[in-house]
Specification:
elongated, polysaccharide binding, 286 residues, transferase, kinase activity, receptor, binds 2-acetamido-2-deoxy-beta-D-glucopyranose, four-stranded antiparallel β-sheet
Length: 286
Amino acid sequence: MARPIFILLFTVSLVPLIHGSGQGAAHLCRAYCGNITVDYPFALQSGCGHPSYRDLLFCFNDVLMFHISSGSYRVLTIDYAYRSMTLHDPHLSTCDSIVLGGRGNGFVVEHWRTPYLSPTPDNVFMLLGCSAQSPLFQGFPTSKHMPCRNVSGMGCREYYGCEGWTSVGLARGGLGYGSGPPVCCGLDFEAIKGVNLSKLECQGYSSAYTLAPLRVSGPSEWRYGIRVKFAVEVSNDSFCKACEATGGSCGHDVERFGPLCICGSWNSTSNCDSSKSKQSEKLAVN
Ligand SMILES: *[C@@H]1O[C@H](CO)[C@@H](O)[C@H](O)[C@H]1NC(C)=O
Ligand SMILES: *[C@@H]1O[C@H](CO)[C@@H](O)[C@H](O)[C@H]1NC(C)=O
Ligand SMILES: *[C@@H]1O[C@H](CO)[C@@H](O)[C@H](O)[C@H]1NC(C)=O
Ligand SMILES: *[C@@H]1O[C@H](CO)[C@@H](O)[C@H](O)[C@H]1NC(C)=O
Ligand SMILES: CC(=O)N[C@H]1CO[C@H](CO)[C@@H](O)[C@@H]1O
């Protein structure tokens, strides 16, 4: 007689348990934009992902956009294993097309985000048409001691060989050997900490990266775009691992930015197996 009632009670109390600790919440924060997967530490939803990447990515008509203080960039790829992403700025100069006139975004990250987001050390920024008064050249009395250099085997000497120079009225080759500042100055991001074209008094820029250890022969084969690395604190990664292991999705408190494990119908500050409501559900089952 008591048996059917017991089974009924057992089943009813088991439902929220399966829902809470099952796979239901695990991918609650995962999203897709076009063919790009947006997952921890990134998110498209408020409260999801790591707080350092909040208000960073937006999806418009299946196009994933990356927004920082210098502007918006299209996200081409996100590599979660190597913690890097590649970005595209339509006004960035390539080998075929040199864009002057200061319309490019450059690359300036909000100060609070810099520990978590910066261009990779093997990404070369080539600043184009900078004035002699540019802060870049201050403190370098002769053109022999410019801060400009090659990065990962990519530099201006090769870039001067590009087809694009002819369309801006500058002859290919032989640029940068005059008395004034060079027309192109290659740098890694660490050297300048920000590519602000108006502050640096430059007319344009290019950015290229190689996918090491591949060696490419010339500037027509470099990949143009900005390669950015992202890093989250290791300590918070363990919080996230514990959260995901219990079926949750990693997020944060939208007001205080502390870590939060999103467990479906409720949130936990540790993981989805450790809340009072959860414990009471377990007691009910027993
Ligand atoms: C994603 O789509 C773009 C075009 O929309 C394509 O160029 C790219 O190769 C695709 N990437 C993957 C991983 O399918
Ligand atoms: C859980 O956290 C997310 C993100 O902060 C929030 O949007 C949601 O309302 C919270 N849910 C509950 C039940 O508190
Ligand atoms: C770039 O520099 C200019 C001039 O110093 C400044 O007004 C502007 O806010 C800077 N832009 C960014 C994105 O930091
Ligand atoms: C690097 O810079 C030097 C001197 O400007 C140049 O001769 C060389 O071709 C550049 N490229 C590489 C790949 O080293
Ligand atoms: C930036 C951030 O979210 N830091 C948090 C990492 O996790 C610890 C606790 O595990 C928090 O105290 C930090 O605020």
